[in-house]
Amino acid sequence: AIEVSKDTADDDQEDWMPEAVDADPRRSARRRGVGDIVSMLIAIYGSKDLLVDEYRALLSDRLLAMDQYDTDREVRTLELLKLRFGESNMHNCEVMLKDMADSKRINANIKTPSLEGNTPTDTDLRDAAKLKPMDSTILSK
To answer: Which H or E run includes 57?
Structure first.
């Protein structure tokens, strides 16, 4: 645990300066002063491999807890992490997100009635959902 002495906290308060008038309003002074968050996380976990493993576990828990298949946020985060850690390190996470996309497609096929070439109506889809209360989720780890 990081301990901050009372003297250090008092010094920070005494050195406080208001933000400049032309400062970017989207970024607070605190955010401008903070270095790279990912580097800080790597320092906390001890290595990038441990951080990637922890992210993979967190992602799998988050995906399993989803009741919808909206993974846009997770895909965006994964793409940023792939830029930082490389594609090979994030491959397992990419597979999990692909599995969720496949699950979405399979569920749509399960719940869509077979009408032999006819386009299903909204009523047909609602009726099929009532008859087939089954969901499928594929998730590799």
So the answer is: helix 48-65
